[in-house]
Design a protein that fits this description.
10 strands; globular; 3 helices; metal-binding; five-stranded antiparallel β-sheet; Germin_Mn-BS; Germin-like protein; mainly beta; 11% helix
């Protein structure tokens, strides 16, 4: 019997860029997609692409001494599928934007006012800390998913504008996620992970 060789060709297609002019988010749609369903383009208006308020100083009277004013798809429906967003960050003197990650975006930070110590930590096993002090007009990049932070190292208020490579970059604040999860991560897990007594874990958890 003759041997027959059957060749099968598989094709897959992926388009990383939008396939239409825009896809303004329709928060009232019941459709479930990776993102938000599109509003009828005939109903789109200028305000779907507009946000006002980045000139307003953020209230930094909190334990961190900072305030993030996000401008993502939740604020501008027209950002849906465009892969970009931004934020204003205000810092009181010596205030911090605590260590956090953006699971879906890289970030480019521009200092508008003041002086900031910024940094990020590389992945395991090196966990190398890369830091720099930035002045007004300086720019710094935080790669996607890496833990990063900013601290105001001046005696006056500081302001930065962050641009992110996702319409919905997400944010995971490390301390909140570890010590403030609901339900809580078990004391024995955290005590072993941080090599401390469970009393220390309970004390830290009480802060979050």
């Amino acid at each position: 019997m003759a041997n027959h060789i059957i060749l099968m060709s598989l094709a897959s297609a992926f388009e990383p860029k939008p396939l239409q002019d825009f896809c303004v988010a329709d928060p009232n749609s019941s459709e479930r997609v990776n993102g938000l369903a599109c509003k009828n383009p005939m109903l789109v208006v200028a305000n779907d692409f507009f946000f006002s308020g980045l000139n307003i100083v953020g209230n930094t009277s909190n334990p961190f001494g900072s305030r993030v004013t996000a401008v993502n798809v939740a604020q501008i429906a027209g950002l849906n599928t465009l892969g970009i967003s931004l934020a204003r960050i205000d810092y009181a003197p010596w205030g911090i934007n605590p260590p956090h990650t953006h699971p879906r975006a890289s970030e480019i930070l521009t200092v508008v006012e003041g002086s900031l110590l910024v940094g990020f930590v590389t992945s395991n096993p090196e966990n190398h800390l890369i830091t720099k002090v930035l002045q007004k007009g300086d720019v710094f990049v935080f790669p996607v998913g890496l833990v990063h932070f900013q601290r105001n190292v001046g005696y006056g208020n500081a302001v930065a504008i962050a641009a992110l490579s996702s319409q919905n970059p997400g944010v995971i604040t490390i301390a909140n996620a570890v010590f403030g999860s609901n339900p809580s991560i078990g004391d024995e897990v955290l005590a072993k992970a941080f090599q401390v007594h469970t009393n220390v874990v309970d004390q830290l958890r009480s802060k979050f």
